[in-house]
Structure formats: structure tokens, C-alpha cells
Amino acid sequence: ANANSGAPTIFDKIIAKEIPSSIVYEDDKVLAFRDINPQAPVHVLVIPKFRDGLTELRKAELRHVEILGQLLHAAKIVAEIEGILDGFRVVINNGPAACQSVYHLHLHVLGGRQMKWPAG
Ligand code: 5GP
């Protein structure tokens, strides 16, 4: 398996910049860009550039611990950039029953409005 094993998704094209996205933050390991169908005034997706089998959190293994930490840290940086440090939500949908639609691990960073619990 190569570093991106798992079926290709639209996010591979976004990483390769073959399709455009509104990038909020990028470093060598992670990319953060605005969700095309925002559910809040701020709705940013944070993804690993190298999926390495990490199609979803439930597939995470010990070798993914470092990138998982980097993704969470990038979520905080995104919240800082977007000015929502006073209140924001980080969501990971896992599997069909949670409405995961893209099988390349991604964190949703949501904010800029009052969030409800557990959904909405
Ligand atoms: P999931 O439902 O898998 O947790 O979230 C996938 C998210 O990716 C959805 O919120 C959807 O709006 C977003 N998305 C799907 N395709 C694209 C795209 O081509 N560009 C961007 N920016 N977001 C996308």
C-alpha cells in the first residue's frame, strides 16, 4: 500500500490543487479549507495531506497518532485565524450512520454562531 492507500476521493484533488478550494491554513502535513456547503458562518475542513489508510477515524492505528495530534492542533490554529476561539466545535463523522460522505479523514471546524448539542 502506498502512503495514500484507500480509494481516491475528491480531497486528493483538492490537496493536489487540481480543483480549487478556499484554503485557510496549510503546512507540510495538513490542509484546511472551507466546506463547500457550510453549516455555520465558519465551516472549515482539516485533512491530512497523506491519508496513509486513514480514511476515517475508526481506522486509526498507532502509527497515526502523530498526524491525529497535528490535525487537532491545526483545528485550533484555524479557530484562531477565523476569530472563533471564544466558541467553536470540532466534529468527525465516522461511517454511514454518522453521515460520513468523504472517506479521507477530516475534522469539521464549526463556529461563528450559537451551536446546539448534540446536533445542529
Ligand atoms: P462528511 O459528511 O464526510 O463528514 O463531510 C464531507 C464534507 O465535505 C461535507 O461537509 C461537504 O460539504 C464537503 N465537500 C464535499 N465535496 C467538497 C468539495 O469539492 N469542496 C469542498 N470545499 N468541500 C467539499
TrEMBL record:
Annotated active site: 106
Molecular function GO terms recorded: adenylylsulfatase activity
Domain HIT as annotated: residue spans: 10-120
Superkingdom of the organism of origin: Eukaryota
Motif (Histidine triad motif) on chain: 104-108
Protein name as catalogued: PREDICTED: 14
Organism: Prunus dulcis
Residues of the full protein shown: 62 to 181 of 181
